[in-house]
User: Fold this.
Amino acid sequence: MPEFLLFVAPNTCARVPTIALEEIGVPFETELVRTAANQQNSPEFLKINPKGKVPTLVVDGVPLTENVAILSWLNARFPEANLLPETSDAFESAQQIADLSFFSATVHPIVTRVAMPLKFIEDKALSFEIVRPVGIEAMNKIMNMIEARLADGPWWYGDTWSALDGYLYWVWGRITGVGYPGENYPNIRRHFDLNNERPAVQRAMAREATNIEVLKSEGLYRAPR
Assistant:
């Protein structure tokens, strides 16, 4: 069995592969990256991931980055965990990659505009008055689409949970955690609640809660706002 070490930080999309690994049930360790102390740009971490980002999954000492790649590899390595539905041809497999890429390349950047507007304009007032409202407007279009998709079943692919549901769980929790108005999306709210009932999600969130307490004890925790 390979050894797994996942570099994480609370509230980041590292929550997604944490949930996936918990769903698989394979033993793994997490390593907290203290982003408030800029540890992601330390020489030590940059040797592991020159991009300076989490998540980074280290498998037998070799790093793998980017959620699309991490989730795709985990699905291929542990097919019995059903992180993604079984496909019958290359085109169906490509559609799954498109779904993963949608969350990674389309939804995630908008999450950043909603949840972390200061990344785009350092002026606090302008970032919250300009960047966040534009992000919310763009997010509304995406959430309308996802709300309609979930009308056909509780999960992204209908009746069966997948890693895409872990990704949507992170997105919804991240944006509503900073005040995104979610009252018009009952299907997504149901989806979030159903995820919270999953033991794997509960274990992943417990890991994250432990890391939050560590950061608080060190004076390095920055709560979402």
About this structure: Residues 90-115 form the longest helix (26 residues). The radius of gyration is 17 Å. The domain at 90-198 is CATH 1.20.1050.10 (Glutathione S-transferase Yfyf (Class Pi); Chain A, domain 2). The chain has two domains: 4-82+200-217, 90-198.
